[in-house]
From TrEMBL:
It is an enzyme of class 2 (transferase). PROSITE patterns: GNAT. This is GNAT family N-acetyltransferase. It holds the Pfam family Acetyltransf_3. GO terms for molecular function: acyltransferase activity. Its EC number is 2.3.-.-. Keywords: Acyltransferase, Transferase. Residues 12-173 form the N-acetyltransferase domain.
Amino acid sequence: MNTYKSFETERLILRPTSEEDAPFMFELLNTPKWLKHIGDRNVRSVEDAKDYIKTRIRPQLERLGFSNYTIIRKSDNVKLGVCGLYDREGLEGIDIGFALLPEHENKGYAFESANEVKRVGLEEFGIARIGAITTKDNVASQKLLEKLGLKFSRTVKLPDDDEELLLYEFQKEAL
């Protein structure tokens, strides 16, 4: 079995999401902000969350070596949210994304984890261009993407979805 890399920041551990995270993922995927800004993944039980991890998260990790990371606070091992690099259908290249449980928002965890995931994508996985999508009304996400150095590029629509999303992009400078 492959072992996949985990990463650390000053306050956080970012480790690949696994089936043991199913209860946490069930909670996160059903928060009001997840449902509003990311979408309903039809995860209605911990068992559904386990299946979501097996069928939606794990295959990309096995294929590319990176995917969704569970954000864990070092000081008490509490799971705060997720951050990751995604090969998303309908988007060219790799997309960065993040979400936190509501009680952990506005404490710098999203920026700290996303900044590390961006660094890892560029430096360790050799990704030259990182994109991100967000809904037009998710101003907090837009500000975070800009703080990460991504710039608004254009609007896009994902397959089987009529909502126009904002696409942000970061291009690594050629040496």
